[in-house]
Amino acid sequence: MESNLEVWKLSHQLTIDVYKLTQVFPKSEQFGLVSQVRRSVSSIPTNIIEGQARQYKKEFIQFLYIAKGSLEETNYHLFLSKDLGYISEKEYQILYELCTRIKMMLFKLIKSMQ
């Protein structure tokens, strides 16, 4: 399963990056932060692809807004991970820039559909 949308491709890559990064988080975070950040990050491409499969443009836009919300949640979890010392400042900056790029793409896609 794959979407031809660039924003989906980037959010899928973000999901892969976050999954790999969280493999080394403390075991005590397995059911806490690791679970939360993985759930929120995977929700981004999931909602994009689900919205794309909908029949009506209005539904697609709603799913894009949900993806945008999940992106913000992910961004916070990554910020928290940095402040807790689970990821480095450099790792955080790379992911933050990717999140910002995805956010702008979602914004433009939503605006183009309205």
Distinctive features:
114 residues, mainly alpha, 0% strand
Could you explain the architecture of this structure?
The radius of gyration is 14 Å and the shape is elongated. It is mainly alpha-helical and 114 residues long. The protein starts with 5 loop residues before the first helix and ends with a helix. The protein contains 4 helices and no strands. The protein has helices at 6-22, 33-52, 57-83, 89-113.
Major β-sheet annotation: none
Structural category is: mainly alpha
Output the radius of gyration: 14 Å
What distance lies between the first and last C-alpha atoms, to the nearest angstrom? 26 Å
SS element count, helices: 4
N-to-C order of helices and strands: HHHH
Uncertain runs: none
Instruction: Give the rounded overall mean pLDDT.
Output: 96
What fraction of the residues are assigned to beta strands by DSSP?
A: under 5%
Q: Tell me, what's the shape?
A: elongated
How many strand elements? 0
- Helical fraction equals over 70%
Q: What is this structure's SSE topology?
A:
Layout: H1 6-22, H2 33-52, H3 57-83, H4 89-113
Helix pairs in contact: 1-2, 1-4, 2-3, 3-4
Condensed summary:
With 114 residues, the protein is an all-alpha fold. It has helices at residues 6-22, 33-52, 57-83, 89-113.
